[in-house]
Amino acid sequence: MLMNKRIASYECEVIERDFLLVGESITANFPHSFPDAAIKVQVEFVKKRELVKNVVDKEVLFSPYMCNDIMATYFACLEVTELSDIPEGMVGFKVPTTKYAKVSCTNKTIDNGYNKVFEWMRENELKQKWFSSSFPIEIYYFEDNVEEEIVEILIPIHD
Question: What is the pLDDT averaged over residues 143-149?
């Protein structure tokens, strides 16, 4: 197996954008059922991703989520150019334009990525926006024949 030459940079920045997403979700007890539930919905969705129309890039998986200390709903989605022809059993939705604190890490360093982005937010006096027309989002960039794949974590922040 080839090794990915890129490593987690943990570089943080503020970005602003919207998303049109089509995918599936799972709701499970939190934290007990995670990350297993997240992995399950991602693996199952990837098997069906060819059903999604108008895809921007089928090698980039978007995973918005909602979570409290009791339950979490975690999505596996593809970004699309329009919300039409949504496959049966899937959902399509728009995440409105939101400002995010973003960090880059890998699928093996995601815990460190979260620590870094929240530390950076504290240092820069940025406050997390809680579920008012927004989600935190994990973005996975699939690559063949690598052990570690790039992941971006987006945390919604207040203007």
Answer: 84
Bridge partners of 19, per DSSP, are 95
Residue 121, helix vs strand vs coil: helix
Distance between CA atoms of residues 125 and 148, nearest Å: 31
**109 vs 7: CA distance, rounded Å:** 9
Q: Distances in Å between the alpha carbon of 101 and those of 10, 28, 65, 93?
A: 12, 26, 16, 21
> Count H helices, E strands: the chain?
2, 6
d(C-alpha 154, C-alpha 135), whole Å: 8
State pLDDT tens for residues 16-25. Answer: 999 999 999 9
Separation CA 159–CA 96 (nearest Å): 14
State pTM to two decimals.
0.92
Token pair 């999604």 in the structure block, residue: 52
Q: Torsion angle, CA of 156/15/79/48, rounded to 10 degrees? A: -60
Nearest to 137 by CA among 6, 32, 15: 15
Q: Look up residue 137 and give its amino acid.
A: I
Pairing verdict, β 60-67 and 71-79 = antiparallel
